[in-house]
Amino acid sequence: MKHITKDIILNIAWILCFSLLAYVQIERLKEPWEKSLFATLSIITVLLFIKNVSRIKYYTLIDDVLIIRQIFSKPKQYSLKTVSGWSENQYEFLGFKTGRDIVLKTKEGEKINLVKRNSKDFEKLSDYLNENFPEVFEKN
Known about the structure:
By secondary structure, the chain is α+β, with helices and mostly antiparallel strands. The chain has 3 helices and 6 strands; from the N terminus they run H-H-E-E-E-E-E-E-H.
């Protein structure tokens, strides 16, 4: 099962559990204004969760084509030949490595942030960029 499929299933399960708990809590409340306020806050929470989840980018590298998938949008394909600049960042907290990401800048002016945990192709992409585009690497 792909990483994006697992995340979709987990997100649906989270929304259903949250909705069930919100429904139970709304039934316990006595005043109508309390019920409507809690229902509104619950809906806002679910919508913010969906908005946050839809930003996650899952990517695959096939030859020199980068395919980026997001949960609520169609897959996009980018040719890595159009990269005008890129950087690789490593994050640490108290001496522990907490994350890595690659930021690509295309010739069209688009900036693409790719996080290591969302793909198995992170090292492959990093190696490809180091081999083919070392001159446009940007240090941070």
